[in-house]
Amino acid sequence: MKIERIEVIPIVVPLAETFRGSKYSMSERATLITRVHTDDGVVGECYNGDEPDTQHEIARIILDELLPLVRGRDPLLVEQCWEAMLPPTYDILRNRKLVVMAMAAVDSALWDVAGKVAGLPVYQLWGGYRSELPIVAIGGYYGKTDAQLAAEMEDYLDMGLGGCKLKIGGLSPAEDAHRFKVAQAAAGDGFVFTVDANQGYTVAEAVEFVRLVGAEHIRWFEEPVRWYNDVRGMRDVRLMAGVPVAAGQSEFNRQDAGELMSAGAIDVCNYDASWGGGPTEWRRIAGMARVFGVEMGHHEEAQIAAHMLASVPHGTFVEVFHPTRDPLFWDLVSNRPPIANGMYPVPSGPGWGLELDWDYVERHRADK
User: Domains of the chain, with CATH numbers?
Assistant: First the structure.
């Protein structure tokens, strides 16, 4: 079996409203569908990322730079293909992260090929640890009244989700603590809360927020502090506030993820495979995390995250958005497993187990 060609389809879906975090906003959802075609007729496919501004450049890198490096190779030698794609990252004058995201897209499709050839879901191909995972929403964006925030939490309960990663860091700690308590009261007992400041606070502000809401109510505090001294700052928040800290999504290589662990800055590593070299690299980082006693999460991307998190004993939550924030998870996949009682069954079909709705794809293609 040999890699014959690669097909890349950019998707952009406008959102009905603009979603605002601490220092950023989103008004559309984008992704790249990558399909690796083999000479045996097996097609591996996956969708990755949320890059509306750079998706066409990522697609160009896949077709112009990575395809020539893997064409003719055995797609089942995934590690070999990964290493073969690495040389374009050696150029010090380019944005390496775009190349790494392009590698991630191809790597994800290759693992789909491997699973389909083996007749196994990817998480079982990797050894497997569990067949379902707790699932939480990413929500609580800014711009909502207390009543609207409470109603959002009730939506998540109705959807069968078991928790929420609440956006904070864009207001004062006292104002964000109020929002947290509104959401907590609406969700009730047993609903898990993590919080995500998206690097919006100083160390003192992050510690103040935890003291206002109580560390016992926070499963973890994600990216609590400013980017320019975040390793030391996250360590200080852990020690001063007594709350677990999560980070890793902003890194795109194993060295930086490993430094978060060795510095004692994090309790949970939520490295994003779609931004950081694909499932192959994520699993290397998961191995490091096991050595350091750090749990593994994943930043969004449930279509691949579920398999990765289910394949290791230290995996945590699958993350999804409200349908208004991410229509792709709810509408692009036609065979999404049912969610109930806060749990998400890992897709059981071969490879990623995904069946895409091609009518939906055609309606939202960004290359036509």
Answer: 3-119+357-364 (3.30.390.10), 124-345 (3.20.20.120)
